[in-house]
Design goal:
138 residues, FAD/NAD(P)-binding domain
Length: 138
């Protein structure tokens, strides 16, 4: 029948987002504002079901220094040899990959970091969609 896909057809997506957490879901929602854009969200990593460290928002301070921490993915200018990300969140030397979470933050925000991650995801969506340039205010 016309329009049907067989099980052997490989799906095609405009974007694949690995990580369906705060930033991943915001980014997917923004990118799919265009009805012609196909996005696949994949949750990578272990389940946090029942993990009280994650499920209690007021517990964020206790995650500092843990595997859920910040600062593991430095962002910087082209002449910064330690920066793995450019100012548009792209991974240097890898085509089509961006990092949108708390890992580029040089220090942890003094407030609950979820808000800051949400704002980073909003900015990433603007950069990907081409509606904002690096350094440009929204």
């Amino acid at each position: 029948m016309a329009g049907e896909r067989s099980v052997t057809d490989e799906p095609e997506y405009d974007y694949v987002i690995v990580g369906g957490g705060t930033a991943g879901c915001v980014l997917a929602a923004r990118l799919t504002e265009d009805p012609d854009c196909r996005v696949c969200v994949i949750e990578g990593g272990p389940s946090d079901v029942g993990d009280e460290r994650i499920l209690r928002p007021r517990n964020w301070i206790n995650l500092l220094g843990s595997e859920f921490d910040y600062g593991s993915c430095r962002m910087g200018a082209d002449d910064d040899p330690l920066a793995v990300l450019d100012p548009q969140l792209r991974v240097r030397g890898v085509s089509g990959v961006r990092v949108v979470d708390a890992s580029p933050f040089p220090t942890m925000p003094t407030i609950n970091p979820v808000l800051t991650v949400l704002l980073a995801a909003e900015r990433a969506a603007d950069l990907i969609k081409g509606t904002q340039q690096p350094g440009e205010a929204r």
